[in-house]
Amino acid sequence: MAPTPATIGANNDAIDDDPAVPDEPIKSTAWCFWAPFAREAESELEQLKPRKAMANLNWISLLADMLAGTRVFWLAPGLFVAAQLAAFAWTGGEESFFGMVTGGVVESLSLDTGAIMRWHMFSASAMWALGAVQFLARRWRQGAWAPLHRGLGRLFLGLWFAVAGPSAFYLSLYSGTGPSNAQVAMTAFSVVSMETTVLAFYYFWKGWRVAVRRRLGAETWRLHKKAMGAGLVFTMTILFQRFCQLILIACRKAVVVLAEAGPGSWTRVRWVAEALASGPLDHNVNLALSTCWFGAALLLLLDGPRSRFFVLALELDPKTAEELFGDEGPGAWELGLWRGRLLLYLAMRGYVTKCWTIDPNPKQMGLF
User: Fold this and answer.
1) DSSP secondary-structure letter at 94?
2) Do you know which Pfam families this protein is assigned to (predicted)?
3) Strand, coil or helix: what is 14?
């Protein structure tokens, strides 16, 4: 006999009243979409086991150890800061080092973002100086010196969260396209720069929480050092990028000088030199290439800090991973934000460039 509406209702009532069949909450479509990914990420930490083949991935942990125990490592940020301050003094406070060597095209204080750039330059320099003290002055971490270590740590984080970090994100978002209107290249630069800034924010915040909660005893401070070291590493990616950029700037200068020094019959050589100088070796393209060739890989890690790569890079076991991240596994919203961050970066860049039609950081005045 075919079921009637009455029998269907009766059957449903019987199921609802049966204590052996508990009611299940209705889940939203968003949760149904993200649930498989959340379960996968939750089980990832549980299944995590040290593997010799992956031992070379613990580079963040190794860099954190270098920050804490190798004074030579701090020469790189020291030289970079010295070059910036020397250029600032040489030009009477009107230009940065890379603004000088690019003729005011890239990272220049003469652009619309010049005021923000000044704040960032000095706050980041002070933050790195404090970071050097925090990592190298080991005796200040314990005993009578511990309050000083904590105070300097709060000042370090205050500089980042109040000035250096927000200004870094702003400068990344509003990076100019230059005379050649390099929209594609500078969008790539903007996205990668925003990514490294967000990761620095994330690890500094998590490192601070680990130190405040102190749930792992002595292991707390090792985990705190790793998290703070990871944040510093992401702020220092600019050092490697600037070195690569300086090489490209030198190549561009060599091409231009050789073409200009040649005889008048070198018309084709000059044409090629001009094409290179305004194309692949353009200052803004150089900036993007020197940033994206290594930084773009970060965007391939869909789960951000929750990805296996970062877990291995920090040498986290399930216990320390739970303490650092604050839970056993990421929720649906957290995974959704990490996996959708590229679209968010692109949307923000599209907004400030009015759908990639304008330079968001035009030059207002020039020194050269």
Assistant:
1) S
2) DUF2306
3) helix
Does residue 333 sit within a domain? yes
- Which amino acid is located at 83 in the chain? A
CA distance 330 to 302: 13
Q: Does residue 234 lie in a domain region? A: yes
The CA-based diameter of the chain, rounded to the nearest angstrom, is: 101
Bridge partner list, 363: 111
Nearby residues of 240 by Cβ (< 8 Å), 6 or more positions away: 294
Alpha-carbon torsion (273, 278, 284, 286), positive or negative: negative
Residue 145, domain extent: 52-352
Q: Determine, yes or no, domain membership for 32.
A: no
Tokens matching residue 43: 């089980």
What is the C-alpha to C-alpha distance for residues 348 and 197, in angstroms, rounded to an integer? 15
Is residue 368 in some structural domain?
A: no
Give the residue from 109, 105, 322 showing the smallest Cα distance to 206.
Answer: 322
Token pair belonging to 289: 């290439």
Q: Which pTM was predicted?
A: 0.79
Asked if 279 contacts 252 with a C-beta cutoff of 8 angstroms, the reply is no
The Cβ of residue 155 has, within 10 Å, a number of other Cβ atoms equal to 14
For residues 289 and 35, is the Cβ–Cβ distance under 8 A? no
Evaluate the CA torsion angle 330, 334, 340, 346 in order and state its sign. Answer: negative
Task: State yes or no: pLDDT of 227 exceeds 70.
Answer: yes
Instruction: Count the domains in the chain.
Output: 1
Q: Is 331 helix (H, G, I), strand (E, B) or coil?
A: coil
Residue type, 213: R
Asked if 216 contacts 320 with a C-beta cutoff of 8 angstroms, the reply is yes
80-95 b/e (C-beta count within 10 Å ≥ 16 → b): bbebbeebbeebeebb
